[in-house]
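=== RUN LOG ===
request id: a7f3
mode: sequence -> structure
chains: 1
length: 443
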Amino acid sequence: MINQSTTLALQQSATTNYSRLNVIVIFTKGMSLAAWDTIGILEREIAVYRELRKRGVEVVFLTYGGRNELKYAARMHGIGIVCNSWNLPEDLYYRMACFIHWRVLRHADILKTNQMKGSDVAVCAARLWRKPLVARCGYLWSEFEERAYGACSREANEARRMEAKAFRCASQCVVTTEDAKQVLIRNYGIEGEKITVIPNYVDFSALGDGGNSVPPSRGDMSLSMSGCNDSSSQVRIGAKTSTGTSAGPFAEAVATAGAPVAASGCFVGRLAEQKNLAALIAASEGLNLRLVLVGEGSLHNELATLAQAHQVNVQFLGNVPHSQIAGILRQNAFFVLPSLYEGHPKTLIEAMACGMPVIGTDVPGIREVIRHEETGLLCGTDPVSLRAAIVRMMGDPALRERLGRNARQFAVEHYSLDRIVEMELAVYRKVMGGGKGTVDIRH
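=== RESULT ===
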């Protein structure tokens, strides 16, 4: 039974100040603060809402986690949390969320989706409580489902249905790229003036350099993963070699590297089919190169076996707290994102913000970020094309220096957290018709 006093206690955990603009962010179906924390992205994901609170916006997260979500309150910088405190089955909670959280939802000024998966909850709440909806997504879920299961699949049809409902119900739509905006116009009949492009952001304060245009020092072609002048490399993250052995998460380990390597390239992301890491490993065969892969996924064991078969030096670091990503990136000579498709890849723009020379495949989501020969190198998704780009990057120090500096400047100009916060506030003002009476939204 859902007890009324339990419900009240939960809603009071979201400390909402009703004299200011109140925004409820509805999480992706199945997602929680605990999941963000596990994969190391919690601080990155809340950064924009932390800054919005400083500018007069009250924020509440509606998540799919259990009561343990409330333990994150101390790390939320005043952001409220409402969650599945009753440990209801996920599908039941999904259907009931807009009713059982009524005390918070009815006082919201704006409801906002984080992604399209599960956006039915936001649409239901917006209609039930007559609230404006900001339908935001970092990538088009339907496009990802089409690539994974086929254009006519049940999964793709469901994603298109949910997107159509959310975008058409919304007062404003927010996407991360101009290409995504055109899809909304073309596929769902959304008027262009109803769509705002807000890219993903980089919190330069988390990089430890304050957002200056000149990047801090980073590793170059002499591998700097705590030294590589002999046959081993000291790694101070929970390291896994291509044999799959591990010293445990975040413990110091020694990874046998074989012969000294001339370069190290880094990838950050899920170990999944979309990321095309098998092609990257095949492309690296025979090169005097170490690949450092940060992240976890279903293909870990398969990729480790493939690395052994191709005799490629691959180091699997697993999931790493976001606060450590910049340091790992800078210990490498270049960053590579070999994906088959992307939305607006956060790891790519963070690598650019670190002053890394970057290689990316010429696919949707990446080609919108990398300007070929100016802020990085674009290449095909096949091993031959990837190898050519890697060899070129390894062999041209002047190119690496130029691309890294340009990438950093591009990230500062386009993806700074302050810039994205102001764009977000502009959407809220537009939704509220220029203001909400005495609501305090500071510039």
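=== NOTES ===
The first helix runs from residue 4 to 12.
Residues 1-18, 221-260, 435-439 have pLDDT under 50 and may be disordered.
=== END ===
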